[in-house]
Amino acid sequence: MSNPVFFTASGSLDQMAPEGRFVLEGPEARHAVTVKRLAPGEPVDIVDGAGTRMSGKVLAASPSGLEVECTAVVVEERPGVRLVLVQALAKGDRDELAIETATELGIDAVIPWQSERSIVRWKGDRAAKAHAKWQSVVTAAAKQARRAWIPEVRAAVDTAGLAAAAGAADLAVILHEDAVRPLRVVLESWLSTDAAEGPREIFLIVGPEGGISQREVTKLCGQGAVTALLGHHVLRSSTAGPAAVVLASDVLGRWAAPAA
Fold it and tell me: How many distinct helices (H) and strands (E) make up the chain?
């Protein structure tokens, strides 16, 4: 069984080495001691949310701090092809459920999309609070999944902003019930012709409860996006993104067993 994970600030593990000692403080330490009830001698992982994972053994535990002896430090590289979920704002916290599940499944970044048919609106003070809530949701989900990377929640966009971002992406896929080509075919076709070096990004674009308007589809496709069929059934806004992440992860080989 994997070790429980607790987060620390990005960069705070950069100087750690085996047999060194690290003190976790603040809310994460209180959670480790009062909720998880970690005690001296138990194994634990401390991660910085930016790929560095320190494995260690608890030396001392109190609500004010968790002292850990480092046994190993590993830097987990980000995937060469990164998956970005563009999630339309949806009512009933369905959008938050989508990004939570997608994070557990391995999404690399999230973009909130104020689509034409989104009932929920991010305006003024609510926009900042809602963005912070999304970041909190993906952070908690990354912790639950024991990930070393916390997905980035990028700035919210309207359709014009999404069209610009999609045009800059290596591949932007609109999940649409009227599409002809299955998502797997679209992804495999792109992989077969992709000769780019360095990090690349695939946008997986999910509409709101009422679906993506034809005007939006036309605008996005005009910037290079393509439509893809996820399945024969119409999925909820909260389900489509996670389902696409699973399929894309399989096609990209992200879930393959490590080499022996």
Answer: 7, 12
